[in-house]
Design a protein that fits this description.
The structure is a homodimer of 190-residue chains.
Chain A (H helix, E strand, L loop, with lengths): L6 H16 L6 H8 L3 H7 L3 H20 L2 H4 L3 H13 L10 H7 L6 H28 L8 H22 L1 H13 L4
Helix pairs in contact in A: 1-4, 2-3, 4-8, 6-8, 7-8, 8-9, 9-10
Chain A binds a DNA duplex (30 and 30 nucleotides) through α3.
Chain lengths: 190, 190
DNA sequence: GATATTACTTACTAGTTAGTAAGTTGTCAA
DNA sequence: TTGACAACTTACTAACTAGTAAGTAATATC
């Protein structure tokens, strides 16, 4: 039929959304198919297994992130502005629509995840931590940030707090999420 | 038969573990039954619905927490020691066995949770945040802690970072979790 | 105009899910 | 000794899960 050439992309968009909203165990091929107005098997045509679909979502997300951080528009920014850009990723994640970050969603279900997806989760988290570490390190050297301890540990604290705060927003409202973002900034200027 | 009078407690223990390890959508009555060496219907005898089982887990956890914080052994502690006690709850949660905190587990699947369980999640998070807020406030007044901004916001940051760090430990190892705990303490002594 | 390919649908399977109805058995109280 | 009750088992159901095999229709290629 060739009714649309970008079905694959639309499936990925929807599945990424569902992963953020309901978790890996919380969505099915039927969810995707019905929302797209196609049959179950059509989704299997594009992504043979759920495992493969999950991996494709994370791989695309990682590619996107790596493209951004290697782009001059971000790379040449001052550390404080780099951090603002990073925080904006989480702020734009639509916590008001109950969306959380992919890393947090996957890590929560880590134990019941297929191995390939676990490896993708490890890689994503590693990349986020590394970039945040480099930015904090650069910022402390330039005097833009001030904090005790190792940049790697501070990076882990910031990332885990953003991850947790998006989840907390579901129970306590988005105000709590924004409070965590602001508190993180405050704690870097002490 | 009356083979054991504490089956109900054993089910709750196991289900709480499974909730921490696999999430609400990740475990089933069959998991519990097989691990306990009983049949599916035996679990339904004690907890008629999964909804009810989930609520009972959180209710017990909340009761336990409230018992502790109202006990003189904790209540009369100095703020810094109170915080150490709180952090120890998370350290003792066995991140090495892939366990995460209940609040984080439930919030991640919040969108696909029955309403009664959502309300339990809200109540639990509210109680944790309130206690942490009070302790931080008391500690700042006494000079034990030092931080910018509101105690409520700092409480949200600490709680969400602990929650996120337990999840992150699954992908990055327990060392990252302990790093976040230590960094949180460092950030209160600046 | 024949052939191949892409993007599906129809129709299925085997396994798992929460949940139920009707029985069974050991224990305890009167 | 009887009968009630607690704590189960057996045997089921309806709905959902990922995944498959075979067929169909539109389009692109030769």
């Amino acid at each position: 039929m060739a009714r649309s050439t970008n079905t694959q992309r639309v499936i990925l968009d929807l599945a990424e959304s569902l992963l953020q909203e309901r978790g890996y165990n919380g969505f099915s091929y039927a969810h995707i198919a019905s929302e797209l107005g196609v049959k179950n098997a059509a989704v299997h045509y594009h992504f043979s297994t759920k495992d493969a679909l999950g991996c494709a979502i994370i791989q695309r997300y990682r590619d996107r992130f790596n493209l951004w951080i290697n782009n001059a528009r971000i790379k040449d920014l001052a550390p404080a502005q780099k951090l603002d850009w990073f925080l904006a990723i989480y702020t734009n994640m639509r916590a008001d629509k109950g969306k959380i970050c992919l890393a947090g969603s996957l890590e929560t279900e880590f134990t019941s995840l297929p191995e390939a997806l676990r490896e993708q989760t490890r890689a994503l988290t590693r990349e986020l931590l590394t970039w945040l570490h480099d930015t904090l390190s650069e910022g402390r050297d330039s005097g833009a940030f001030r904090f005790n301890g190792e940049p790697a540990d501070k990076a882990a604290l910031i990332l885990s707090s953003l991850q947790g705060a998006l989840q907390m927003a579901r129970a306590m409202g988005t105000r709590k999420f924004h409070a965590v973002v602001e508190q993180n900034k405050q704690d870097l200027l002490a």
